[in-house]
Design brief:
With 306 residues, the protein is mainly alpha-helical. The protein has one domain (25-94, 104-303): Orthogonal Bundle (Farnesyl Diphosphate Synthase), CATH 1.10.600.10. Helices cover 70% and strands 0% of the residues. The protein has helices at 2-36, 38-45, 51-73, 80-92, 107-119, 123-135, 143-164, 170-191, 205-210, 215-220, 226-249, 263-276, 284-287, 293-303. Helix 8 packs parallel to helix 12. The longest helix is centred in the first third of the chain and has 35 residues, at 2-36. Pfam families: SQS_PSY.
């Protein structure tokens, strides 16, 4: 009897430790996304459970990969950390027999592993999140190259969120592709004011040449430089066209998965502020935090207006 009770108590303790470990891993994912991807964090909070937990795991994985790629591009570290995440994706899809010990004991990886098993997430989308960062130095010759990068590095997250919701639909994927491209281009625009330490900014060369603007002028970003304004306008227009296409396609998307497309709202609001500032990227109204965004997102979700 004593032995049975000891086993029972030990088993109960294991369950408690496992539950505590799961809660800790969830909190790590939540904190990562909140601290490094605030607008997408707000959008993800408006998803329903249990999908919200898996969505946060996917976005936390994306944050981890993005953080490493930023250090690699700045020359602070080598490519080995990205190789670690590439190998991790391979590990997540190994046969179930004895693979529990093979998965690295990392809170984000544990949560992602659970999401992969629960929702049968596609391996190729996770791989694309890593390879897009590993293969690109953010030097684009054409706008098409930038769009392709955004498709891999941003739209792949949306494809995974659709799978988290059990949706594999060509109309949904089409809408996600355009939203991912719009968000990727907006992310690039928002990063330019923080690129001043570099000798170049990630603007497609064809746009710079078309408007007679060099990299140095983009770095200086003077408010009276009409050429810089025209380049910014041209790139913002590409993002806006993708956004409008995505919003038109959302009407064909099943209602339960439409909240995945809430980032449309934050992109729309940023482009609106940029237009009012005459496409000056370092204008205070453009760079400020959108304090009304949480309320606007909640209201737009209630109305189903994305």
């Amino acid at each position: 009897m004593w032995c049975w009770r000891a086993v029972r108590y030990a088993s109960s303790g294991t369950v408690r430790r496992t539950a505590s470990s799961d809660a800790s891993a969830q909190n790590v994912c939540l904190s990562l996304v909140r601290n490094h991807d605030k607008e997408n964090f707000l959008c993800t909070l408006l998803l329903k459970n249990p999908e919200r937990r898996s969505a946060l795991a996917v976005r936390a994985f994306n944050v981890e990969v993005a953080k490493v790629s930023e250090k690699v591009s700045a020359g602070n570290v080598g490519v080995m950390p990205l190789k670690f995440w590439e190998n991790t994706v391979t590990t997540l899809y190994r046969p179930a027999d004895g693979d529990a010990g093979a998965v690295p004991d990392h809170p984000v990886i544990r949560e992602l592993h659970r999401a992969v098993r629960e929702h049968k997430l596609s391996k190729r989308y996770l791989q694309r999140l890593v390879t897009a960062r590993a293969n690109s130095n953010l030097h684009f010759v054409t706008v098409k190259q930038l769009e392709d990068y955004a498709e891999q590095a941003v739209a792949s997250v949306l494809y995974l969120l659709l799978e988290v919701h059990g949706t594999r639909n060509v109309h949904c994927d089409h809408a996600a592709s355009h939203l991912g491209k719009a968000q990727g281009i907006v992310n690039l625009l928002r990063s330019i004011p923080y690129q001043t330490r570099r000798s170049a900014v990630p603007i497609p060369q064809e746009l710079l040449m078309a408007h007679g603007v060099n990299q140095e002028r983009m770095v200086r970003n003077r408010p009276d430089d009409k050429g810089v304004e025209e380049v910014t306008f041209a790139l913002a227009s590409v993002a806006f066209r993708h956004l409008e296409t995505a919003r038109g396609l959302i009407r064909t998307v099943p209602r339960p998965v439409r909240p995945i497309f809430l980032p449309c709202v934050s992109i729309e609001r940023y482009l609106h502020r940029l237009r009012l500032a005459r496409f000056h990227l370092t204008d205070a109204s453009v760079m400020r935090t959108d304090s009304l965004l949480p309320l606007v997102l909640y209201w737009r979700k209630l109305r189903g207006n994305y």
